[in-house]
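ARCHIVE RECORD
Type: protein–small molecule complex
Small molecule: zinc ion
Source of inputs: curated submission
Record status: active
Notes field left blank by submitter.
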Amino acid sequence: MDYYSSHINKLIESLAGLPGIGVKTAQRLAFHIINMPEENAGALAAAITGARQNVQYCSCCCTLTDKELCPICSSPERDKKVIMVVENSRDLAAYEKTGKYKGVYHVLHGAISPMLGISPADLKIKELLVRLKGDVDEVILATNSGIEGEATAMYISKLIKPIGIKTTRIASGVPVGGDLEYIDEVTLLRALNNRNEL
Ligand code: ZN
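STRUCTURE (tokenized, with ligand):
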């Protein structure tokens, strides 16, 4: 690492800290950025800062949004009595792309993972329970079908059981360990339509 200037090293280290980016990719990206026209590099930096400063959690469903209440929660067209629980905003986007789901969402921002040290307290579960005090007909657990997503769905279904709200789990048409965002719309809709009551 000492072959480069300290500024380049710092950039490589920052990039290598991102998920899915190894040192080699970080080096490639860093040199690409260095060789960009200065205004493009500036625009990239500004986009990062702007997103970080202006994006917040929706005060209702906890998805990432620019406003206090996200467009889905503030839409009168959406059925507020059906809440689909997803792991992250990318999963929400995958279901939105189908254009067929008319309920609302709740974004957990992760899944329970003892291995990664993610406990229920690290997720937006408390916020979900607060919402369930309102008028809710169904909670659809649409966490991923990997071990962590299943464990999270089970954990939440046990919390909801005493409240007596209908709780369903999307069908396992979703490949095991598959990230919802990479699954085609037909498979997603099938998983949603064939959901099972827990
Ligand atoms: Zn929202």
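CURATOR ANNOTATION: The chain is about 45% helix and 15% strand.
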